[in-house]
Amino acid sequence: MREIVKNTNINFMGWKKYCFIISGILASLGIFALVQIWAGNANLGVDFAGGTSVQIKFSQAVNLHEVRLTLEGAGLKDFDLQDLPSENKVLVRVKKQDDTVGKASEQITQILNEKFADKKPVIDQTIAIGPKVGSRLRDDAMLAVVMAAAGILIYIAFRFRILFGIGATIATFHDVLAVLGIFWLLDKEINLILITALLTIAGYSLTDTVVVFDRVRENLKRFLKDAVHDVINRSINEVLSRTIVTSLTVFLSALALFLFGGEVLHDFALAMLIGVVIGTYSSVFIASPVVIFLSKDKNPLSAKKA
Amino acid sequence: MKKGILWRLALIGATVLIAFIFFLPNTPLYKYMPDGWKKVMPSKGIVLGLDLQGGLHLVFEVDGERAIEIATDRAANSLTAAFQRKGIKSTVKREGEFIIVSPVDAEAKKVVTELYPQLSLADGSGALKYKYSVADIKKMKDTATDQVLEIIRNRIDQFGVAEPIIHRQGDNEIVVQLPGVRDPKRAVDIIGKTALLEFKIVDTESPVAAELPSRVAPGDEDRVVAKYKNRLPEGSQILFHNVIDKDTHQIVDKQPYLMKKEVLLTGDTLTEAKVNIDQRFNEPYVSLRFDAAGSRIFEDVTGRNVGKRLAIILDGNVYSAPNIKDKISGGDAMISGGFSMDEAKDLAIVLRAGSLPAPLKTLQNLTVGPSLGRDSIEAGKMAAIIATLLIIIFMVFYYRLSGLIADTALVLNIILLLGAMASLNATLTMPGIAGIILTIGMAVDSNVLMFERMREEVRAGKTPKAAVEGGYHKAFWTIFDSHVTTLITAAVLFQFGTGPIKGFAVALSLGVSINLFTALIGTKTVYDMIHLKGDVKRLSI
Asked: Which residue of chain A has the CA closest to B436?
């Protein structure tokens, strides 16, 4: 047998103090990011903020500064520029929202077509979203997060005891907040694709937690007299290798997506990579300690029988 | 036992075959299939989403308030005409949502009730104040949205787009998806153009008319309107004519006209609109023909206004304003104005399909060029192949023969996922590609959970066969739970996501569901086959 880890006996729960500190910071960062998003101090995608984005592909490299001067010279205001030099692509974003959309993208396309005609600009993608659709997409995203959280909570509560449900939910929220916080810190775009990644992370991070909790539950039934602390430590050690291997396989596929999946899915893959790592960490170091904390280290299964 | 295995093998073989048949249209092999096959067997396969094949996704809002105003305007106009015919002295005008008839006249009241029974009298002191009821207004807005939908459908049919999707969303929104459109701007113009054709009389009597500048720069229109706003005669307005450069087809100047507000005739009564070429200037124009009722009005209007100028106005722009030399009968007219051939064609399309009962507001406009989608598909394939290889190699390295069994199940999972998506004609989107690739990573997780259980059973001293049984049995609920949580999020994403996100949800949920089958039934069958051959001493895991 090849084994990543062999007969470990690590006192995971002994680290819980440090883990709570680290996770506290990560989760706070996420909450802070949420507040900042709320206040408008985030790199919100056009789909949420409204506005226009135009991505143009040129046949050869263009100077970003020249593009900026051209657009400014033609009277375009309040725009951001970003380039993908490896692909000769330029992304122009205009935050200004018009009641009826489409004019800004037409204007940008026309300006660049005229000035850079020799570099054969081709439109890759334009996204123009009016304020009404933007706010609707924001509401839908919010509702989706709430519904997913509720759905998972209900299922876990139905399959496990409430203590575990709370532990799993806290761990899941922790993961989502941490990834959101990190993305905010990296000034990555907060958009629909990221929300999709966050919800996928939420669903997947539970996989690891379920694996651990299944074993914890099993062992709590077997070792009624032992402290919950010890039972959980034993359980995590027992399932440690599968926790690592299952995460590793998903990590590998997210890595392939990150490296080869193309620009559109790049940030999605990055979120998944970070999410899988944090999700694995939290299922060991957050979900279980929360159960210990809530059960006051008394076996919740034996308590009923006593 | 042996029979059971055969049955399961047959089941697996059959599903793979069916999956392959469904997925065949998406492979290059399909074009070599005989015609008979193509006729009977599935031909559609997985559909590429707009984000992958390029195209347009538009959301419009129908301005219902304007629809009511326009309808009220028309009612006021036709009442004016009716009053004139019957020699009633009362005048009609629109104020907001009200139609005001003054002075009060019993005869006028009778005419209104006769022509517009749905107008109810809101106030009768001094003047007759009519309006549509709340229920009528709601119905009119609703009808307006339906009409817009129908007209857009008509226009797109005539423009010629393969497989457009056009549907209503909510109270007053219309979603239009046009896959593979190469000229998005033209398509948007055709859909969004109100194409309200109106005939009005140029006001030359008012002193303001003589004061108006002959040309203004484009963009200065509002300033001109504001300047004369307070001195405009009652019932007149300023409209502009676009002066177009013949070579570049760009607007170079705006020419203001003082225009009577009264609409004499609209494009409603058109029976024909087609492109002709003006022989003198070799320039396309659109010729119009009215139906009998329209022709009669046209004749009447021109007869009453000999010596004045009749303006042909499209969507608030004056196209031409010829002098009326004589009464015009026959019901023919034309619109010219420096059109390019495409512009003239598109104008004929929108006029034929009819004017929108209300203007549209574009709420959302997504355009994807064909190259981005093509690049994304190539990148997606690459990532999928590399993800599969990485995982296959890892599993064999880590779990030996058992890893190979899991890899077989993984390949089975991918085949069945593509087959299932093809059988549902599911839409593959960019996020959908990510869903498939993540499924590849998650697919082996079920096997990992089982294998680790089996290892525990082996360590506990169980026989290989018992270890396999125990592994499957004990890991099942863990696997089930983890699949359900993923399915919950996928369901939520499907419910609330936009098109591309829905594609992700479909790929992920199908992949995970199929995984239950491949990981449980597929690999179990292989183990049973191995153990059938005799007493296996050691489990390769």
From this structure: A253
